[in-house]
Amino acid sequence: MLENCKYPIIQAPMAGGISTVALATAVSENGGLGFLAAGYKTAEALETEIIAMEQAGVLYGVNVFVPTLETDKQEEVEAYKTILEKDWQMKLELPAWSDDEWEEKLALLKHYKVPAASFTFSCPSKEIISDLQENGTYTIVTVTDEKEALIAQQAGANAVCLQGIEAGGHRASFENTDPIGNKPLIDLLADVLETVEIPVIAAGGIMDGEQIKELLQAGAAAVQLGTAFICCEESGANPIYKRALIEQQFTNTKLTRTFTGRLARGLENDFMQRYEAVAPAAYPTLHFVTQLIRKQALIKENPQAMSMWAGVGFEKVRALTVKELMQQLKTEAGLL
Q: Of 38, 59, 62, 100, which is most buried with the most CB atoms under 10 A?
């Protein structure tokens, strides 16, 4: 699969509407590998997007969240919900646990023989990976350290996507715990390359061709960029989010559990600062608890209460078309 891409540049799957068919298609048409994001989306909605990608006739991938049962934090969740309801003067939802239509989405991957599938938050079973591979799907497991990379290799994954601490969005660690260390991606890559024999895709805070060149020279089979694509015309990110990045309305990024109950790196705003001490490690429950607050913040154009995921290099973001950005990245990386 990776060798079938003209350039070793992968567009990260960004759930929540950022990864659109237009974005993924444009990346693939310009020699990279575009990804759809299945997370927080119904199987029916995902199928519509897969059909559109099939009609576009390009290589593409689909990322699926592996369901994980969270430990019992009912009391902590209820306490957090009560605080939020009081502060925001609104009734918030507390839904039952959901597997995000896991089986239905796996069935879609098989039915449409999706070229590539990546998995986040855990490693699928050997049986699931083998089943997909026999159907022609290249399987990638997102990992955050050597231990997880080895688990993915032993399960038969074709490749791992190594997510550094610099990455925007959710930490892809198999356990919902704090990171043990803050080793830079380039150093983490060296450790993982010594541990596994399968290809390693490097991800986390990559914004320009110089970083791409460095990581490829260090042994990465490809690189995956997310934040770099958020302000592209084809991205589905809302205008307030894009403007906050382009105008550098925020000065820092931070890992937070306040919005979803799982650590995710985003632009550090008032919501993060206010609730970090009381937000429990309860994912995906908190994602749904805070959903109405985030929707209201978008309506009121209040970036201080929105989850705006971004990697550490966000200040280098460029407002371009995908074609223009890919051209610049390839030129800077010396890939042309």
A: 38
